Amino acid sequence: MNNPKPLVYFLCTGNSCRSQIADGFLQALGGEQYEVKSAGLEAHGLNPRAVAAMREVGIDISNNTSDVIDPELLNRADYVITLCGHADDHCPAISNADVVKWHWGFEDPAKATGTEEEITAKFREVRDAIKNRISEFVATGK
Q1: For the segment 84-137, what is each residue's pLDDT rounded down to a tens digit?
Q2: List 12, 46, 50, 83, catalytic entry
Q3: For a surface tag, which of 28, 36, 39, 125 has the fewest beta carbons within 10 Å of its beta carbon?
Q4: Active site residue 84
């Protein structure tokens, strides 16, 4: 009997940028090793700039949905990874004592201001930082 793949649940405030980017990278880089889900404390919709930033690196997240945290998934997860301080502070209680809960804090690119070029640059910077962290996780399990 096959063991199910470990479930990684990425959480953010609105499930629109950082958690979607992390979801996309882990699906692309470690989808054969992990079941990947993402959600937010609220559902703010998929940020078009996050979709565009991921498209630049050949990953299509345009069909992802922005979802609120599902308590059943939360308690079934092997890894719960928060990507913003707000989600880390307000994550619902997890009844699964075996869950590994980590906080990987990333700046919110949706809060970037300035010219379109400067905002796009912030999305790329955060995207690349998340990719590096996901690559390390896939390689080491940490």
Answers
A1: 999 999 888 888 889 999 999 999 999 999 999 999 999 999 999 999 999 999
A2: 12
A3: 125
A4: yes
3.40.50.2300, 1.20.1530.10, 3.50.50.60, 1.20.120.160: which CATH number matches 7-140?
A: 3.40.50.2300
Active site residue 91: yes
CA distance 78 to 124: 29
Q: What is the pLDDT of residues 58-78, one digit of tens each?
A: 999 999 999 999 999 999 999
DSSP-derived secondary structure letter, 2: P
Q: How far apart are CA 65 and CA 63, in angstroms?
A: 6
- From the candidates 21, 26, 51, 84, which is the catalytic residue? 84
12 is an active site residue: yes
CA 19 centroid distance within chain: 2
Structure tokens at 55: 């498209």
Angstrom distance (rounded) from CA 19 to CA 11: 6
Q: Cα dihedral angle (126, 131, 133, 134), rounded to 10 degrees?
A: 140
Catalytic one of 91, 100, 112, 119: 91
| pTM for the structure as a whole | 0.95
